[in-house]
Specification:
alpha/beta, Rossmann fold, 10 helices, 8 strands
Length: about 280
């Protein structure tokens, strides 16, 4: 976006523009930026709401599911839209919140066939997915396309998030080399999820995207931030880049997206945040 702000934009973003780290220059960066949110569930809902409110110029939202009544306990942007495609529901929400934001809604699955082409179009990616194959697929597409990504996961009362900056820090595979055995970790549908939890983690993911775009602060690259809502504690685990990582290591084995590496049928019961 070029030129001056309109009077409406000055009023809308005034509390943000007065921040020394943002200013008019930073707000223009946000209005010119492009963020892809993969999954419009609990994590995605909060991220979408705050990214749109902040004035991210283009929001891509991909989700193939429909809004169900059981979603509304935590997926805050879908009220009144039961039976509507989540991508469309999210698009409607953003348009009603901020007309400055261009919304591109993809009512489809994020898949090996479209992964690289999709992330390539954006400046930052937010992983709000709900199963291990998609977590790894998002990571691999972002690493191969050199795109930064915030990953998030939740279960019961606990959540974690980290940010991957390709070529600068560890990727998702550096931290989680392989998924746990099937059946070890229950899904949210099986074990439940505290409704506000995805809001907290998803908002942190939005903050990571905004800081990256504004080139201010410190991201969670190299750090795994963990949160427990029951005792209201945050703690960090450091994460280093692994030289033997299968995609970003010194001799990577993964050099392209091969569909057979992301088959869902063998992973269905080990999504750490299925139903997020």
């Amino acid at each position: 976006m070029s030129g001056s702000f309109t009077d409406e934009q000055i009023r809308r973003y005034s509390r943000q523009i007065i921040l020394p780290e943002v200013g008019g220059k930073g707000q223009k960066k946000l209005l010119a930026s492009r963020v892809l949110v993969i999954g419009a569930g609990g994590l995605g809902s909060s991220a979408i709401a705050y990214l749109a409110a902040a004035g991210v110029g283009t929001l891509g939202i991909i989700d193939s599911d429909m809004v169900e009544l059981s979603n509304l306990q935590r997926q805050i942007i879908h009220g009144g839209n039961i039976g509507l495609a989540k991508a469309k529901s999210a698009e409607n929400f953003v348009r009603s919140l901020n007309s400055d934001v261009e919304v591109i809604a993809y009512q489809e699955r994020f898949s090996p066939e479209n992964a690289r082409a999709m992330v390539r179009r954006y400046d930052f990616v937010i992983d709000g997915s709900d199963n291990f194959p998609t977590h790894y697929l998002i990571n691999d597409a972002c690493v191969l396309e050199k795109k930064p990504c915030s990953h998030g996961s939740i279960l019961r009362y606990e959540g974690y998030t980290t940010t991957s900056l390709p070529q600068k820090g560890p990727c998702y595979r550096c931290i989680f080399k392989k998924s746990p055995p099937p059946g070890l970790i229950p899904s949210c549908q099986e074990a439940g999820v505290f409704g506000v939890l995805p809001g907290i983690i998803g908002t942190i993911q939005a903050a990571e995207a905004l800081k990256f775009i504004l080139e201010t602060g410190q991201t969670l690259s190299g750090r795994l931030l963990c949160f427990n809502a029951l005792d209201m504690t945050f703690f960090e685990a450091s994460a280093g880049k692994r030289s033997d990582c299968s995609i970003c290591g010194e001799q990577p084995e993964i050099v392209s997206i091969e569909p057979e590496n992301y088959l869902e049928k063998s992973w269905e019961v080990c999504g750490i945040d299925r139903g997020a």
